């Protein structure tokens, strides 16, 4: 259970893509710290399936565990308020409605963790095979959709002087793949979406840092998600990397506003660097 704490430390946080993996781990970690939560996913209940990342992804249609409603219930068991809200990154009305529900329920949202990404064909297909309308959809889902949410929450963030925006990014935002998509690399749609989203934090810091807004691009590194384990099992190989819980530690540290974390506003933060910093402190 959450102990009584100073209101200045307690936050209202929206975490997108919170059914499983990094989003779920972040939600659970923030609940342990006493923060109230709005958790989003495309569907509220179980039965979700993986959409794949290419037109011929063999994992497309595979069932995924858990649901955002279950995660919200687990968070409530820790003594915080937590609601599950449907949000489809490809549907602007869905995004706007999710923001309206959050504001109606809590009055304001001072922290936005942008974790959800577009999943579906086109993400990791070769450029020659990606229709332009699908390319636009991937980029808008990953880079524009979070800004629709942020625009709705920004007035309250600036009024409180304690807003936080964290966008989960990737090395694909700044690096060229060593191999083509499907062979260990990534597709142009994914790279462009991550690259666009990667630039958000720096601009927000310059424009609103003086009003107390902290913004970060958080690179989680190579994280062992449920889909990665499914793919590794199919290919009879072992998957290695950091767990979602490691990323959650980094997010929770940034949200808490340690002086060292405040100094990193506007920058790319690498999850494993935060873990190492905390181990050495």
From TrEMBL:
InterPro entries: NAD(P)-bd_dom_sf, Sc_DH/Rdtase_CS, SDR_fam
SUPFAM superfamilies: NAD(P)-binding Rossmann-fold domains
Keywords: Oxidoreductase
Protein name stated in the entry: Unannotated protein
GO molecular function, one term: oxidoreductase activity
CDD domains recorded: SDR_c
GO CC entries: membrane
Family recorded in the similarity comment: Belongs to the short-chain dehydrogenases/reductases (SDR) family.
Keyword Cytoplasm assigned: no
């Amino acid at each position: 259970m959450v102990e009584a704490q100073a209101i200045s430390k307690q936050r209202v946080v929206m975490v997108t893509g919170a059914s499983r993996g990094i989003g779920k781990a972040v939600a659970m970690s923030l609940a342990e710290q006493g923060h109230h939560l709005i958790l989003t996913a495309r569907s509220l209940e179980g039965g979700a399936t993986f959409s794949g990342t290419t037109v011929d992804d063999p994992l497309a249609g595979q069932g995924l565990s858990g649901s955002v409603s279950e995660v919200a219930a687990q968070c409530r068991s820790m003594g915080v308020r937590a609601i599950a809200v449907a949000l489809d990154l490809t549907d602007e009305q869905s995004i706007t409605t999710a923001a309206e529900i959050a504001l109606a329920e809590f009055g304001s949202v001072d922290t936005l963790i942008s974790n959800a990404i577009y999943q579906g064909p086109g993400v990791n297909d070769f450029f020659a095979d990606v229709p332009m309308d699908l390319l636009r959809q991937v980029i808008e889902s990953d880079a524009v959709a979070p800004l629709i949410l942020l625009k709705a929450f920004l007035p309250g963030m600036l009024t409180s002087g304690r807003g936080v925006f964290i966008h989960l990014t990737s090395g694909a935002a700044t690096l060229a793949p060593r191999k083509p998509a499907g062979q260990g690399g990534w597709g142009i749609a994914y790279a462009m979406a991550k690259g666009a989203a990667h630039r958000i934090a720096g601009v927000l810091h310059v424009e609103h840092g003086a009003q107390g807004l902290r913004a970060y691009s958080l690179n989680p590194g190579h994280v062992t998600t449920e889909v990665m384990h499914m793919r590794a099992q199919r290919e009879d190989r072992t998957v290695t990397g950091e767990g979602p819980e490691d990323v959650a530690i980094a997010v929770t540290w940034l949200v808490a506003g340690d002086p060292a974390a405040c100094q990193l506003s506007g920058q790319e933060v690498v999850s494993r660097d935060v873990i190492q910093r905390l181990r050495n402190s």
